[in-house]
Amino acid sequence: MYSFERLFRLHSGKEHLQKKRIVVPHSTEDEELSELLKLYKGNKIRTTKYSLLSFLPKNLFEQLHRFANVYFIFLAALNFVPVVEAFQPEISVIPIILVLSVTAVKDIWEDYCRFKVDHLINRLLCHVYCSTQKTYVDKCWMDVRVGDFVRLSCNEIIPADMLLLYSSDPRGVCYIETANLDGETNLKQREVVSGLPLQGVEFTPESFCSRIECENPKNDLSRFRGYIEHSSGVRIGLQSSNLLLRSCTIRNTETVIGIVVYAGHETKAMMNNSGPRYKRSQLEKRLNMDILWCVVLLIIMCLSAAIGHGLWLKNLKDPVFQVDDETSPALAGFYVFWTMIIVLQVLIPISLYVSIEVVKLGQIYFIHNDLALYNEQLDSRIQCRALNITEDLGQIQYLFSDKTGTLTENKMVFRRCSIYGVEYPHEENGRRLEVYEAEKNEAAGQSVTLKSGCSGKSLSYRSLSCNRSSVSLHTLTAESAEEDDQVSSHVQPRTNAFCSRMEVVPDPQLVRKLKLLCSPVVHLSDCSSGNTSTLELSYITDFFLALAICNTVVVSSPSQSPHEASEIRTPLKSLEEIKQMFQRFSFSPFSALTSHSPPQIEDSPQSRASRDTKTNPDMAGQGVENLNREMDSDGDTHSELLYEAESPDEAALVHAAQAYCCTLRCRTAESLLVDLPGLGSLAVPLLHILPFDSNRKRMSVVVRHPLTGQVVVYTKGADSVIMDLAETPKEQTQKHLDSYAREGLRTLCIAKKVPLLEEYDVWLKDQLLAESSIENREELLLASAERLETNLTLLGTTGIVDRLQEEVPETIETLQRAGIKVWVLTGDKQETAINIAYACKLLHANDQLLTANCGSKNACAALLEELKLEVQCGEGSMTDLTARVESSSGSVAGFILVIDGRTLNWALQEELKSNFLELTCRCKAVICCRSTPLQKSQVVQLIRDQLGVMTLAVGDGANDVSMIQVADVGIGISGQEGMQAVMSSDFAISRFKHLSKLLLVHGHWCYSRLANMILYFIYKNVMYVNLLFWYQFFCGFSGSVMTNSWVLIFFNLIFTSIPPLIYGILDQDTPADTLMEQPELYQAAHTSKVYVPNMFWITVLDAFYQSLVCFFVPYFAFAGSDVGELSFGSPINTSALLIILLHQVIESKTLTWIHILVLVLSGGSYFGFVLLFSVLCVTCSPPTNPLGVETLQMSQPLFYIICILTIVMALLPRLLLRALHNTLHPSAVLKSDQMDRMNAGKYSRRMLCWTRSHSRGNRLSVCADNAGLEPSVAEVVS
Amino acid sequence: MMASSYNAKDEDGHITVSGPGGGTLRSKKPENTAFKQQRLPAWQPILTAGTVLPAFFIIGLIFIPIGIGLYVTSNNIKEFEIDYTGVDMSSPCFNCSQNFSWNSTRPCTCTIPFYLDQPYESNVFMYYGLSNFYQNHRRYVKSRDDSQLNGDTESLTKPSKECEPYAFHENKPIAPCGAIANSMFNDTLELFYNNPNGTKSEIPLTTTGIAWWTDKHVKFRNPGGNNPNLTAVFQGTTKPVNWHRPVYELDTDAENNGFINEDFIVWMRTAALPTFRKLYRIIQKKNNMVPTLPRGNYTLEVVYNYPVRSFEGRKRMILSTISWMGGKNPFLGIAYITVGSVCFFLGVVLLIIHHKYGNRNNSADISN
């Protein structure tokens, strides 16, 4: 009865599992619940595919899923049927066994690596609370179970997904670094579940008896829903900010305790862990077509043999050599068909697939090891995540690029701002940035260091990184241990590169106005002059306050312990004073300031110098004390504050605020500590954060204003959104916005709202409801946020510079010269996008700009027609004019289409698609601005599918993921915005400029290598198999072979298997330098495709010719003589081998000692094998016993006479045609080769002229924020 | 401010290089080796008219003399061939060929006269040739048991299944088993020189030395080691169906009997092509004064046993001298001369092309 009940409970538990997960402490008394806990997976991870026992069946099963292996097995099995048997059965299983075992060994090795890593991780120790010993004991990770309490110290790695229950931080927060998870090195704040006993007091697991109910494991990193039910029955909602994720690292917090809710494979980290991607390359698709042709060829050959055999038999009457004369000719023909399939099996180059894989591994190895693709500053190489599309890199026709972080550095620096309709140009700041740019150009090698270097901050960086332990769990993502070491030991440079810190030089005018706030002397005079109104001052204050607090920036100061840093210092003034001040501030601020405000200015260095003199005699004693304290702390605290933000924009704004002395000092869950000029440190009670999301394009904080006590909403967001929501935005501000955008600045609007109390109360209720709901919380939160963010008051706007990465214009120009159409797809504004396009030379001064912005579908249709007409006219008029220019320079004035997201939406619809495509085809480049991630992928898909071209998408952020996945080749830039793009990409690079080498050199090489290798492979097989086929004409189509079957099998598997691999890995048809210097070669190789159907047939024809020669020269030499079957095969085999090897010498563009070695070894292995075999094999290999054959043959001069004649005759046509072709129609590739050999001086002179003519008119500045760039240079149409 | 920032930057750069952990760091920087950076010194054979034309001339210059040499050598070889199948009514062997079966016990003999118009100086090799005989048929080639032939006693009594259907006869194992052995050529050929005085003198034919050394001494062995009593050794086996005598009665000479009978060995090495010859006898040169086979009339006496009419085969007797390159074969010489001439001709064409176009390319302008 009991067991039944138990069973029932278990059952119900399982049912329960399907909906929700209930977690209670492991020490629970409740039988049912502890049973339930046992149902959850443990923390042991096993990423291996096989176990010792399951390896053989599982691996075989997996391998048999490949068609190639099934084919092999079919052939092997066929050979066991006596009537069709061609070789001894045991010989025919060699190929399949070889292929299977090679793959199996590879799989075992990979699995073993995974096992080692798993083992390492499973054996890591952590402190787990033991309820019997009432203390924390060391336990292996794998023994951690759901419901365990785990205590972690600073810099320890989290073993499982846990709910944070206790933090030594009195505010109940802790920081985690998620670099192992998503590569983001900034700290993320996690909060203790609210409603738990006071933090700071040691947590006792026994006293915890709440029940946690949460959703089942999901792979969404940023989502966690559930509630905790205390013993009192109170339910509190849980969010992802309460969850500590496995493989993250605890930072800046001494001790945390959590309860495990997901363990092992159910953790979010493990669920997000996906293996490498499998994409099928374009070349492989075409290869499959050719393989099909090979199958057709095979069937034709087998059929003709079958028919031939039937006819031959029919004409014979009881011959003495006919072994079984009962079978009818038709049946015998049928048998022969299958025999021939076995004999000619190598015609289907099944081993080609294995070879291609090996070749691609080799190519990847070289790409991975390229110094030019290595970024010294980030210490990162290129990552090749997809192993099988290397050759697609050489076929790219369209490149879709993200802008931010891809073309630009995504290191935001505050450049200028406009407040209350007044522009503060920050000229000094701009100058500094420009000087910086010049320096960069001078010291190109160091450019990245310079940029990431933050003046005066490097010390703190270093200390920070020293604080951080170098233990990393990168291995969790199943990378090798070696990789792991390297990653962990380079936390420092990565951190360094991540936090963008730029000193902002404050605008003097703005500083002066801010000073008004605190300096009564200046105030009076200014007030009288009426320069600065009270309103404007309050705008400015609010503006900077918003900059400082409207964000999710994490503040840390590495030199101090977390406790010290987070300690809330008492405000400088008593509450009373603040209130007083506020009242004066809002009604008559200046009089209030006169009497009460101590001049605590710590803004710009200039003003700091004069600060001491500005001692106010009226200042209260307390004020002096405070001032001194601040002065003292200035040296350490101020400079050591570290901001780690989710987006670089936020960090830039906080730093900008800091430059104006609005310093965000620290942040807790409930309040923010902000220094304000003239007001000192203020605690701003934080009521809500309405986080940023891409739909709203804004974020808000709701705070209680420290001075007025009112509830204030500060909103920061994209100008398009804020301007719509703001009440009566200033015209002036809009103008400034436009001019910022023209300069290529990223603009953000800052707005505020003071909701009425009732309004706020109503909203608060909804918000709380939304927060605590489990189902569709996101939607509710979104709606709630939108309800609050209305009727905003625009405070001002900011312009943030995002500089171009180094060598971006050069790279784009190179890519365009290589015939690749570059599209920029960005979420930015049109003006910004155009400006960046100018800066990166996508757009030239003489290009004609077509802009498409329309509001409706009909308008869009009309516009597309109109633009098309225009382009046609333009082309007509331009062709005469520019024909000459074009031929010499290539960068002819063209049309650039700029289309915005809304119009793009229409254009992508079914009816307008074709028009849009036609238009874009005629344009040199297309810029899509304001596009959503979905649109990006739609555009890529449209181009890829409709034009049938090879596309490449490059991006760095989560918004590029869909585009990267859709494109044929997806490239992720590992930069500032986390690793999502990298994780979904095929190749991950660290700089945009790496693209040119990756495509032009490696892409070109990989493609030509692979294409040539495939052709060579097919040639090799057809050539050899045909020898056997020709022999059928002389053996009554009976399926006889003139070779020993071992030699026959090994010919493909051993003697000629390595040279094609070397050819495919090492051949260089053009030197790297030439490819880089002449991007046109990329296109040339692309249009005069190496691997086209023609080439396939030419290769097959050549193979036919060679096999004819190779068979019939020995045939005529031996006709009518007493030659034995094997003696006849000996010179044929030998010369076939030498022809095949020498053919490669002719085809290879480069021969290194590796080539020579491999060729010699291949030839040597053949001779060694057959000679040994013919000496040692007395009775082995029964029907075709080779004893004495080769030794005798090779001792006769006739053998060599035949071989030499055969080889020369076979290779003569190819040699001749190559020479003639190269002489009469030298390809572009070849021309450049010859160029290399030309007199160096002559060559460089010519190159100089050439580049001069190329770069004519392209002398636009590199810097994105160069004020000299005016879009008016181009005619703006429409 | 600017100055301080520079210092910081320098320091920053320094940190990047040395790293915070000191010397224990391993940079991910790829090694700058010629191999890894794909800068191995390489020979770049660019095939143009200019570069390949010396090769063509050289090939031409080497091949033509070789070809002439081969041609002359081949022409110096004397060869005589006579078809004795007996297809025509006029042929002396016509009768034999007509009423023949494998099982006939009465030997049929025919005599064919022929005339050699030139003397054969050195050793003369006597071949029998068969046409349209597919010794290379897949099933036929396999139909043998190498172990048995190697003297393995177990295989002697239990022939391999490959020999089927010639493995057992009347429940006795066949030795040697298989279709190849079963179809062994069993005509007897004898040569007589018709002396001018009208008498016939038999020409001595050597029966040994016609098989490969390795075959005779390694591959083929009589069972029972060196036991001279082959009859006992082959006890319990039976002769191949088509044979007239058992294998141990092929020759009287013990060194040429049983499996190591050279006629048998020669037959067992299957021919590559359906028209083939096999060495039958050697006519040794007597001394330097007299030619081995002087000019004059000869008679070939054939004991006609071997049926070929069913598959329209032909039987020939061939007399030939040999050279270092084997038997008479004008093909190689002609082929060498042809290829050599073609190469030479192409070399000239390439030279013209090189002069006309080669230089143009070198000066080909990228900026045209």
From TrEMBL, chain A:
Q: Which PROSITE patterns match?
A: ATPASE_E1_E2
Q: Which domain of life is it from?
A: Eukaryota
Q: Which UniProt keywords are present, listed alphabetically? A: ATP-binding, Endoplasmic reticulum, Magnesium, Membrane, Metal-binding, Nucleotide-binding, Translocase, Transmembrane, Transmembrane helix
Residues covered by region (Disordered): 590-635
> In the UniProt record, does the keyword Ribonucleoprotein occur?
no
| GO annotation, biological process | phospholipid translocation
* Gene3D superfamilies for this protein: Calcium-transporting ATPase, cytoplasmic domain N (3.40.1110.10), Calcium-transporting ATPase, cytoplasmic transduction domain A (2.70.150.10), HAD superfamily/HAD-like (3.40.50.1000)
Q: Where does ATP bind?
A: 402-404, 650, 692, 716, 746, 826-828, 930, 936, 959-960
Q: Domain (P-type ATPase N-terminal): give its ranges.
A: 38-92
According to its UniProt record, the EC number is: 7.6.2.1
Is the keyword Endoplasmic reticulum in the record? Answer: yes
Topology in the lipid bilayer is annotated as: Multi-pass membrane protein
Please give the PANTHER family that the UniProt record associates with this protein: PHOSPHOLIPID-TRANSPORTING ATPASE VD, PROBABLE PHOSPHOLIPID-TRANSPORTING ATPASE
The name this protein goes by in its record: Phospholipid-transporting ATPase
**Source organism (scientific name):** Amphiprion percula
Upper classification of the source organism reads: Eukaryota, Metazoa, Chordata, Craniata, Vertebrata
From TrEMBL, chain B:
Question: Where does this one sit in the cell?
Answer: Apical cell membrane; Cytoplasmic vesicle, Secretory vesicle membrane; Golgi apparatus; Membrane
Membrane topology, record value: Multi-pass membrane protein
What GO biological process terms does the UniProt entry carry, in alphabetical order?
phospholipid translocation
**InterPro entries, per this entry?**
CDC50/LEM3_fam
Keywords in UniProt for this one? Cell membrane, Cytoplasmic vesicle, Disulfide bond, Glycoprotein, Golgi apparatus, Lipid transport, Membrane, Transmembrane, Transmembrane helix, Transport
Q: Where are the transmembrane segments?
A: 46-72, 331-353
User: Does the record carry Membrane as a key word?
Assistant: yes
Quote any Pfam family the record assigns.
Answer: CDC50
Family membership: Belongs to the CDC50/LEM3 family.
Question: What's the protein here called?
Answer: Cell cycle control protein
Q: Read off the lineage from the record.
A: Eukaryota, Metazoa, Chordata, Craniata, Vertebrata
